[in-house]
Each structure stands twice: as C-alpha cells, then as structure tokens.
Amino acid sequence: MSEFNGLVAAVTGGASGIGLATAIHLAERGAEVAVLDLDGTSVEPPLIGFSADVTSRTSLSQAFARVENQFGRLDILINNAGISAVGTVEENDDDEWSRVLDINVVGMARTSALALPLLRRSPAATIVNVCSIAALNGLPRRALYGASKGAVLALTYAMAADHVREGVRVNCVSPGTVSTPFVDRMLRSFPDPVAERAALDARQATGRMVTPEEVASAIAYLASPSSGSTTGTALEVDGGVHTLRVRPA
Ligand code: NAI
C-alpha cells in the first residue's frame, strides 16, 4: 500500500510494543519512519532508530535535528512513549508521581513542542497521542497511571484546538489492555500474575487482550492524509471494555 508514500513519521517509544507495531505498520503503508526511543539502535530496517529520551528537551531537540537532516521533513508524530504505574494514592510516592507524569504527560507536550516547527511545514501534519481507557474508567490501583492518561486526553483536545488553524490535526487512541512487554512488567507487581492476566483478559468484552497491531491500525487511520477532517477525537481500541456491559462468559 502507498497511502503514506512521501511522508515521514516519528514514533516515540517505537522500539517495543504498540510503538514498534505502529512504526512497522506505517512503514508497510509507505511512510519513512524514525523511531525515537531510549536506545534507538535496537530497531531494524526499514525503520531508522534515533536515541531520544522524552524527559529531556536537549535529547529530543538533537533527535529532531537528526530526523530533519536525514529526511528533510516531518509529517506525522506518534506520541507513544509511556510507562506503567500500579498503586493507590497511598502507594505511589512523590518521586513516582513526578517520574510518571514527566514521561507520560510532559513528555508528550515536550515532544510535540519540538516537532511542531517541522510539522507546520507539512501539507499533511498530524499528531496521534497514545492515551488509555484508564483515562475514562476508574481502574483499581491505577491512580497515578489513570491521572496521567486523563491528562493526555485533555492535552489532546487542547492541542487540537491550538493547532487546527495551522493545519495540524491532533487525535488520540485509547487502548484497552494490550498484550505488550509493558503489561508483562506490570503483572510482575501483582501477588498472582497468572490470575491477574486472566482477569485482564476477562475484563474485555471480547475475552482477550487487544493486540499491538490492532492499535497500530487505529493510529494509522487517524494519521492518514485521508482523515483530514478528523481532529480532536479519541478513538477507543479496547475490546468494548469502556462502553459494553456484557454478561460474564
Ligand atoms: P512498552 O513498554 O512495550 O514500550 C514502551 C516504549 O517506550 C519502550 O520501547 C521504552 O523504551 C520507551 N520509553 C520509555 N520511557 C521512555 C523515555 N523516557 N523516552 C523515550 N522512550 C521511552 O509499552 P506499550 O505497552 O507498547 O505502551 C506504549 C504506550 O501505550 C504507553 O504510552 C502506554 O501507556 C500506552 N498504553 C498501553 C497499554 C497496554 O496495555 N500495553 C494500554 C493503553 C495504553
């Protein structure tokens, strides 16, 4: 497919999970894809890796300079880098709040701010933020994580309003639980990871976790030049968990 031919995409956190699936999906549909991750060397062609830390303006600035040098343009930014947090407000200390919000929320604002000068020069400029259904549902022991993704949802709407007249569309996807290394690490913090994994599968109306490829496909839909009238939306990719109330299997 050639839908993204001639366009350049940057995917933060693109070396693993949803980000990697998205980078591969966009490349398969014709985009040139820059992966910005802590270790940019781990990705394979046709993806091109750039080491960048979304908590560092200097690091991001250097990465976008290298992207511009390599490709001469940037059309699509996927703000995907994010980390998990498990706990109630009593269980996460101030340092953990600062660390998670700095990556999950400020990281997206920081990355977008540095990408916008390049995006404004694109005829098909778009940003897709990776939110979560944790922004929309009260999930147990996800106080900090849910707060971070609630902020991503609000940030998406605010950015969409700020940049629509500049020709930059901004949307987000809200995945349910996706089977990635992120979930594997999170499960290790539960006393019975096997039971917790079964509970996560059962929570989905579909009875299984979402796949990274399903989220990648939704991100590509929002990022596509053919979605020119879609801005300021949140697209749920969650196996029905947010809106459906089905009987337990
Ligand atoms: P993952 O852990 O498989 O991949 C995350 C990537 O982000 C890694 O390659 C990691 O190196 C990178 N990263 C972490 N900190 C970074 C930093 N400071 N700078 C640059 N890169 C950094 O995680 P997964 O599951 O693919 O998650 C991606 C996004 O999807 C996150 O924003 C997460 O909150 C969100 N999400 C995940 C869900 C899930 O169930 N897996 C559900 C809903 C949303």
How would the blueprint of this fold be written?
Elements: E1 8-12, H1 17-28, E2 32-37, E3 48-51, H2 57-71, E4 76-79, H3 94-119, E5 126-130, H4 143-163, E6 169-175, H5 181-187, H6 193-203, H7 212-223, E7 234-237
Parallel strand pairs: 1-2, 1-4, 2-3, 4-5, 5-6, 6-7
Helix pairs in contact: 1-7, 2-3, 3-4
1,4-dihydronicotinamide adenine dinucleotide is lined by residues 12-13, 15-19, 37-38, 52-55, 80-83, 103, 130, 132, 175, 177-178, 180-183.
Report on the structure:
With 249 residues, the protein is α/β, with parallel strands linked by helices. The protein has a single domain (8-179, 212-237), classed as NAD(P)-binding Rossmann-like Domain (Rossmann fold), CATH 3.40.50.720. It has helices spanning 17-28, 57-71, 94-119, 143-163, 181-187, 193-203, 212-223, and strands at 8-12, 32-37, 48-51, 76-79, 126-130, 169-175, 234-237. Strands 3-2-1-4-5-6-7 form a seven-stranded parallel sheet, with helices on both faces. Strand 4 (76-79), helix 3 and strand 5 (126-130) form a beta-alpha-beta unit. It is globular and about 50 Å long. The structure holds 1,4-dihydronicotinamide adenine dinucleotide (NAI).
